[in-house]
Amino acid sequence: MFQSMNGYEEAVEFLPATDTKKVEKRGPKVKFVILGVVIAAALISLMVGLLVWHFAYRMARVQKVYTGNLRITNYVFKDAYENSSTTDFNDLAGKVTDMLKNLYTSNPDIAPHFSECRVTAFSEGSVLAYYWSEFSVPAYQEAKLDNAVLELKIQTVNLRQRTVLSVDSFEAYPVDAQLARTFRTSSCSYFLHAKPGEVTKFFTPGFPNTAYPPNMRCQWTLRADAGHVIRLNFKTFKMDICKTPAGDYVKLYDSLSIAENRLMMTLCGSYPPSYNLTFFSSQNVMMVTLVTDDKGRQPGFMAQFTQVPMTTLCGGMIRDSGGVITSPFYPAHYQANRECVWDIQVPGNKLVKLRFNMFYLMEPNNSDATCPKDYVEVNSKKYCGEKQSFVVSSDNNKMTVRFRSDLSYTDTGFTADYISYDAQNPCPDQFTCNDRKCINKARRCDGWNDCGDFSDELECTCTETQFRCVKSQICKPKYFLCDGVNDCGDNSDEANCGCPDNTFQCANKKCVPQAQKCDQTDNCGDGSDELGCPAVVPNSCSDLAYKCKNNECITKSNPECDSVKDCSDGSDEDTDTCNCGRRPYSRKTRIVGGVNADTGEFPWQVSLHAKNTGHACGASVVSPTILLSAAHCFQDAQGVRYSDPSLWTAYLGLHNQATRTTSTDVQQRSIKRIVAHKYFNDFSYDNDIAMLELSSPVTYSDFIQPICIPEKTHNFPVGKSLWVTGWGALTEGGSGASILQKAEIRIINYNECNQLLENQLTQRMICAGFVSGGIDACQGDSGGPLSSLESNNKMYLAGIVSWGDGCARRNKPGVYTNVTQLRDWIKQNAGL
Ligand code: ARG
Fold first, then answer.
1. CATH 3.30.70.960 occupies which residues in the chain?
2. Which part of the chain is the CUB domain (predicted)?
3. Catalytic residue (one of 632, 655, 677, 714)
């Protein structure tokens, strides 16, 4: 056995012979020979081991590259320094490299490993020099070199005596050697200087006609005149999906070196056009790099930049009684290395509170609550990360707000309004939360956490329609009892809902004999006793099992398109039917207030315009020629023949009603045929479904995609959150929206909802929304989709907007056509 830490100490140990008798019998000579052989073998392996160690560890060398910048104080920047072929550039670069070499070779931990260094660029201030230095170091000394090079920063004082350059700051940062080399040698290198008052464009190679090439390394050096900063904006950004650690990505640096400590942002995947991808440099330079791998081609990006005068102004003294403050350049990404202080003071008899409406100060891989990087500090408490709207208040008439960003990573920042208020009456005619947020009085003790800190739900007397949660003591509506959702947080609303022994509890809380589970009969009434049954039963499908093309039955819950082949003929994963419910833009836009949907976020949403009235109803794309909508939209009324296809025009790929005829994303079609459900009941709205056939097929795009139609056995559980979308009224009786709106709502237990809506529900209806009101579909949303994101990451049409008692009223959730219950009708009438 060989044991050594540093090569000075070695020891050899022998394994004991297992059979000593045998060894002894052979006599002394044989004994010595064997011993000799063993020793020789041991020595040889020792030598081999030493050699391997020597070559593999001591000799194996690692290429190390450091990059960074240093500030030269006794030179003044001139234009010639921008161009590396000028003599001015080369003169100064020579001085800098000499100085660096000197610095490295006079340090015993660095000198033996130094290979080369080079200056890549200069920029203003007085002169900043960007460089890289390359080293070749034995693997075991890598850490030591790292330390020595990074330590060099603090030795800058010595530098001044040895060279003609005065250097007052020095930064080094390790970079991936391979990556650094490919960037250096890449022909895809651009140097751009902003022209005053002009926009400079740049884009990925081949954009927009061809996809960017594989294994590409590009870099763009962006500059502005002295006294300016760069405003960079990505107009289009469509790259391959983000993969870690490799994949295709774009990095933005607030520097001309690719040092990670100056990285502003890493971009990958696709951003919808509405996403505000705008960045500002802190100085007059910026660097953009592109790395692509060997697969997954996409169009790439188109970016543009301009120069704007540098202002260090932000924050300030505020003496008004109310107003708005935002991070610099909000809603664009704020700059790195900024500090703003607002000193707010309201009249002496008032107090101040600050309400943050948007708050995005996110640093990747950093969830440190002490906010060591970017933060907002209010009254000495730091806030960072991504936050829902919140309120901070003062005990007096003053408030100090400080915003600070560090050198790396920027986000879109915050917007907040400050209000002065009366200490005696912080919320006139409203309820005051603990954090002094004001909420409508009716929201007190309603079982909903309207304050955000539950202060509106404390010290309440539960009414007869409420029960009290055990741990929090909060009163909640009785509808929440035993609905399968842990509303109390301690599960106390879901305890004691059980069924006696040997019985099975249905999703609707009914108890049925255990023997009835998986007997292919719907004993529960909601089919839940026939879900999740493991066996595949050939040729005898109950209504509740998924039926394969070859008539096999799958009793697993939601087997379609889940990437698992459940049918032996694979028909549950058929590529045609599973090609649906996809959203080309995976990113959510951070909308400034409101609930505007994003462009391309619901690409199956259709706007149906009736002649002379404009937008009247919504619909969903389910195939290139077929839309699903609500039957009640096509009932003749007030002398208008809504049932006549020629009355209607469908707009697909639409986002903003105002650009319906101008947007290139929109495809407009007339309607060839309308088939409303034969048993649609005008009075009860039972069977509220219709199928529309388009005059000609549409072409799918980033803005037009079909939504998946769920199988009739598909289960959308109570409490599941879904999206309802449309251009309908923004308030009850109000006018419609111009931008497509979205709202997140939850499925509500059928029986509870039926009680609330005075038994007006049929099995062809489902309820979704909030018992507390406030969020709902409204007039003009009818026919539109209730979209459900399923575990296979596809969106399914769970419902169709049908009716409601007013809009967003308390205890009046919205009612939707139950698509799974009408699955056969869709098959028969749309052939899908
Ligand atoms: N019937 C309405 C329409 O024609 C839709 C109503 C939906 N209402 C509701 N509160 N969810 O647009």
1. 61-182
2. 188-308, 314-421
3. 632
